[in-house]
Amino acid sequence: MARLTGKKGSVTIGTSGVYGVKSWEIDAKCDAVDVTGMDSGGTKEFLSGLTEWSGTIECFLDSENFISNTVLGGAPVSFSLVSDTTTPKITCSGNAILTGWKPSVSVEGAVTLSLTFQGTGTLTASVS
Question: What is the pTM of this model?
């Protein structure tokens, strides 16, 4: 089994690549619906509920590829996040709404930007 790296990863939002990406993260969840009844024999019982996904992107702020806060809360856009250009790699894609835009400035370092997004619809994830 081959281990994966992120050293040549990429992020695309809509049709634009995001430069200077330091990291990205996807958080996919499924609700567990409690259906425990008095007839459950003293143990809880659950059914699968609704699924959702969200994520974050950490990048260096780039004046040539500036992602503006004006896209916050706008229409869903396509997201594609890839761990590496070589194989094996993990690819996650779907449509999401940009929900957070957080620049960070320090006298001792490069300006960074943290983006958060909320998925809408299905998340497609694959390893190839």
Answer: 0.87
CB crowding 84-111: b at 16 or more within 10 Å, else e: beeeebbbbbbebbbeeeeeeeeeeeee
Q: Using DSSP, state whether 59 is helix, strand or coil.
A: strand
Query: What's the rounded mean pLDDT across residues 38-64?
Result: 94
Structure tokens of 78? Answer: 């396509």
The single-letter code of the amino acid at 72 is L
Q: Which of 55, 54, 53, 33 is nearest to 45 (CA)?
A: 33
pLDDT in tens, 104-115: 999 999 999 999
